[in-house]
């Protein structure tokens, strides 16, 4: 029944022993060697262990699953998928995504020898008994389901034609949702802790670029061993990250504002090309100052498409703005369409993405006047709220969550504003954007407001003039 795994499997005896233990408990499982296609397009021949697990959810069900055993097993968790038949639909939930990929705390906390395949399957059964992952399709839905199954097969089984395979392997196959934070200052550490607390990633890498052990402020993270957090000074540790967060700021002796920014640009020249090389499909999320300029610099230095280079922008201000409208000023109807846009600092401006249809022009003016009064009150309160490292860290985690988990949620982030509001220069400003795994999926159109457009154009002009003076 069990053949010897190929030489790429470093711990063959341990792997075979585990698979045999599963077969004793679940004799229907079968073992084969197939090609797995990773999300970055790389492929690898891996052991595929497939079978059904018994689940009681009112009635008894046999749920088909497949476990892809990585060549670093048992020190890395398997990749787990549902394997629905043509008459089964996937019930997307806490532990299963639309492609049937299974996510469990057991996988995230995997640690040999405590973690085993038997233990994993037991937790899988327990979670499925809380929330059944599959449901029966009607005959009319079965045809559409076959298209989904075909798509899933391409992900989980790869191409069968040997000539079409890209045998590049890939680093960190056991870690699919990795986020790297560059910079171990207060903001960098705040981002790491917020991302870890929000359970956004399977692994968080903190790149400490400071000189000397004590300067980076990472000692306490090492002492208390935050789970799934790796601290490194080696850029290669960031390889295959889904999101790379930039928090570094130059602490040089620059005299003028332009000199300070140029120091940051020079710092980024040694960072962006390297992290872009190691994570060619990542979204760059810039939190360094000034965020609009440094996002532009990151875009130029990385050569990434504009959709995958964004700044934290006014996300924090927008979330606070909406919260104040809803909870303090009791203007729930307004809050869902309210955004802070433009550039960070004093030049940010409240804006709206839709307006209720009213009968005539008089009512339009009355509605806008009422809305502006409420917005002005909220903006006055915002002025008294500083942006501490921990609050920006929470904002970064919020954005990373929407990106990594493909939530398609709207955020006000720094994005290339050329073409919006008659802006013709390459500048980054905060605008409401739909975020997903590819970064900015689309920019949400703002309601036409001459004052907002004037403010955005003014910001674009001053930022563009500043960028023209930088040496890239």
Automatic annotation (TrEMBL):
Domain of life: Eukaryota
Location of the UEV domain: 1-138
Matches recorded under InterPro entries: L-lactate/malate_DH, Lactate/malate_DH_C, Lactate/malate_DH_N, Lactate_DH/Glyco_Ohase_4_C, NAD(P)-bd_dom_sf, UBQ-conjugating_enzyme/RWD, UEV_N
Segments traversing the membrane: none
Gene3D superfamilies to which the protein is assigned, alphabetical: Lactate dehydrogenase/glycoside hydrolase, family 4, C-terminal (3.90.110.10), NAD(P)-binding Rossmann-like Domain (3.40.50.720), Ubiquitin Conjugating Enzyme (3.10.110.10)
Molecular-function annotations in GO: L-lactate dehydrogenase (NAD+) activity
A Pfam cross-reference name: Ldh_1_N
Single Gene Ontology BP annotation: lactate metabolic process
Family annotation (SUPFAM superfamilies): LDH C-terminal domain-like, NAD(P)-binding Rossmann-fold domains, UBC-like
PROSITE patterns: UEV
Catalysed conversion reaction: (S)-lactate + NAD(+) = pyruvate + NADH + H(+)
PANTHER family: L-2-HYDROXYCARBOXYLATE DEHYDROGENASE (NAD(P)(+)), UBIQUITIN-CONJUGATING ENZYME E2 VARIANT 3
Protein role: Interconverts simultaneously and stereospecifically pyruvate and lactate with concomitant interconversion of NADH and NAD(+).
Protein name (database record): UEVLD enzyme
Native species: Nicator chloris
Encoding gene, per UniProt annotation: Uevld
């Amino acid at each position: 029944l069990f053949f010897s795994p190929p030489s790429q499997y470093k711990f063959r005896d341990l792997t075979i022993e585990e698979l045999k233990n599963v077969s004793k408990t679940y004799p229907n499982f079968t073992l084969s060697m197939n090609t797995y296609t990773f999300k970055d397009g790389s492929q690898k021949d891996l052991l595929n262990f497939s079978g059904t697990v018994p689940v009681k959810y009112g009635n008894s069900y046999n749920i088909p699953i497949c476990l892809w055993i990585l060549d670093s097993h048992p020190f890395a968790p398997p990749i787990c998928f549902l394997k629905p038949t043509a008459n089964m639909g996937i019930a997307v939930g806490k532990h299963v995504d639309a492609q049937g990929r299974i996510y469990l705390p057991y996988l995230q906390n995997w640690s040999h020898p405590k973690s085993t395949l038997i233990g994993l399957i037991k937790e899988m059964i327990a979670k499925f008994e809380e929330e059944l992952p599959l449901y029966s399709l009607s005959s009319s839905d079965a045809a559409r389901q076959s298209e989904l199954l075909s798509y899933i097969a391409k992900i989980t089984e790869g191409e069968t034609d040997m000539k079409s395979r890209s045998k590049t392997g890939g680093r960190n196959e056991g870690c699919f949702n990795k986020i790297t934070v560059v910079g171990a200052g207060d903001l960098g550490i705040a981002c790491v802790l917020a991302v870890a607390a929000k359970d956004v990633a399977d692994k968080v890498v903190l790149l400490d670029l400071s000189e000397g052990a004590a300067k980076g402020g990472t000692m306490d993270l090492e002492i208390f061993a935050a789970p799934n957090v790796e601290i490194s000074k080696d850029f290669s540790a960031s390889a295959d990250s889904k999101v790379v967060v930039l928090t570094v700021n130059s602490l040089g002796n620059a005299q003028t504002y332009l000199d300070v920014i140029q120091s940051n640009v020079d710092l980024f020249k040694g960072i962006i090309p390297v992290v872009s090389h190691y994570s060619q499909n990542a979204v760059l999320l810039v939190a360094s100052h000034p965020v609009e300029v440094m996002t532009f610099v990151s875009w130029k230095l990385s050569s990434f498409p504009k959709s995958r280079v964004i700044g934290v922008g006014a996300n924090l201000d927008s979330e606070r703005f909406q919260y104040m409208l809803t909870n303090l000023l009791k203007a729930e109807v307004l809050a869902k369409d309210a955004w802070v846009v433009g550039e960070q600092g004093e030049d940010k401006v409240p804006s709206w993405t839709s307006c209720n249809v009213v009968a005539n022009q008089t009512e339009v003016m009355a509605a806008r006047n009422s809305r502006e009064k409420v917005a002005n009150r909220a903006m006055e309160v915002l002025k008294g709220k500083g942006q501490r490292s921990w609050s920006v860290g929470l904002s970064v985690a919020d954005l990373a969550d929407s990106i990594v988990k493909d939530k398609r949620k709207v955020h006000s982030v720094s994005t290339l504003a050329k073409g919006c509001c008659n802006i013709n220069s390459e500048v980054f400003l905060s605008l409401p954007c739909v975020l997903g795994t590819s970064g900015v999926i689309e920019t949400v159109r703002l309601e036409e407001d001459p004052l907002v457009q004037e403010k955005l154009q003014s910001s674009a002009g001053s930022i563009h003039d500043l960028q023209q003076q930088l040496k890239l």
